[in-house]
Amino acid sequence: MELMNNILIYTKNNCAQCNLSKYVLNDLGVSYTEKNVDTNEKFMDEAKATGYKSMPIILKDGQVIASGFMPDVLNQLGE
Fold first, then answer.
1. pTM of the model
2. Do residues 66 and 57 touch, judged by C-beta distance below 8 A?
3. Environment class of 75 (CB within 10 Å of its CB; exposed 0-12, middle 13-18, buried 19+)
4. Using one digit for the tens of pLDDT, what is the confidence trace for 25-37?
């Protein structure tokens, strides 16, 4: 699967940190692919394979760059 801007974000339902992260990315005009782990078991398995547990899990070029709400990291993506 070709990822837009090579940014992937694993999210889940009712996740304030996920919603804040997506809001910041959208506000910065950063394109990303979202995979909601509550809607697809395969996405949950992929998220678990990263070794991180706090949502959202954000990857750039296949490498985890953030777990949880990390505005400093998100802002760097908009530069």
1. 0.90
2. yes
3. middle
4. 999 999 999 999 9
Residue found under tokens 């078991």: 41
Q: CA-CA distance, 32 to 21, in Å (whole number)?
A: 11
Q: What is the pLDDT of residue 61?
A: 92
Long-range CB contacts (< 8 A, 24+ apart) of 22-29?
Answer: 22/56, 24/71, 24/74, 24/75, 25/74, 25/77, 25/78, 28/74, 28/75, 28/77, 28/78, 29/78
Nearest one of 73, 76, 75, 49 to 10, comparing CA atoms: 49
End-to-end CA distance of the chain: 25
Distance, CA of 54 to CA of 68 (rounded, Å) = 5
Integer angstrom CA distances of residue 73 from 1, 28, 49, 79: 24, 12, 21, 11
